[in-house]
């Protein structure tokens, strides 16, 4: 709704007046303080400024030009700074840390460890809080996006498991990168592009780092040809090379390497030496 202040989001507000400790902005119903340390170098009275709105430690609505790591209705991978009797507090880029009440934790959360959480506005307190019980929020987003096998998506890895790494896909669906499909260094909390390998009956996604099907094989062949060019026309790898050596040089599994080499050989783009691959 227009002309309504949105807590937990960015707002474009009019500058009403200047005071020694900052600027007062038009919050429609009340004026809102932008503290002095967040005031930009240049501004004009009656001009507009983009600010994030939240509540300070004294529960007052306040503005900042700092950008939090997440706004409301978003997922984020955040680090625990403090454990208190009311819950844990997460670092999210603002002076006031973000609370996860104990009732919104699915396991004991520890200082220094990061977790995937959902940021929302508590309807009872009108405060911005976070929840680590992400399943209930994901269920609200089930129909947001339809996925297809082979589709390129963006994944946020957030938890190691016995099978591999759990990921949040396109900010709305859970997915899994399996151990045997991980051929590069995947860091928790760091976005990466992946491909959908399978859509399970429960809606969760099986993921892989390399493209699927023909697109994937074309990508692998291109990698090998680029490596051959880089090494002057001869690449010292072959079908008996250790899988670790193949991965170190090409970032792919031995199985994919052998398939790609076979395709290049059939296409007469390479010839096979005793212990090497040679550009034709």
TrEMBL record:
<dbReference type="InterPro" id="IPR036388">
    <property type="entry name" value="WH-like_DNA-bd_sf"/>
</dbReference>
<dbReference type="InterPro" id="IPR039566">
    <property type="entry name" value="CvfB_S1_st"/>
</dbReference>
<dbReference type="InterPro" id="IPR012340">
    <property type="entry name" value="NA-bd_OB-fold"/>
</dbReference>
<dbReference type="InterPro" id="IPR040764">
    <property type="entry name" value="CvfB_WH"/>
</dbReference>
<comment type="similarity">
    <text>Belongs to the CvfB family.</text>
</comment>
<dbReference type="Pfam" id="PF13509">
    <property type="entry name" value="S1_2"/>
</dbReference>
<dbReference type="Pfam" id="PF17783">
    <property type="entry name" value="WHD_CvfB"/>
</dbReference>
<protein>
    <submittedName>
        <fullName>Conserved virulence factor</fullName>
    </submittedName>
</protein>
<dbReference type="InterPro" id="IPR014464">
    <property type="entry name" value="CvfB_fam"/>
</dbReference>
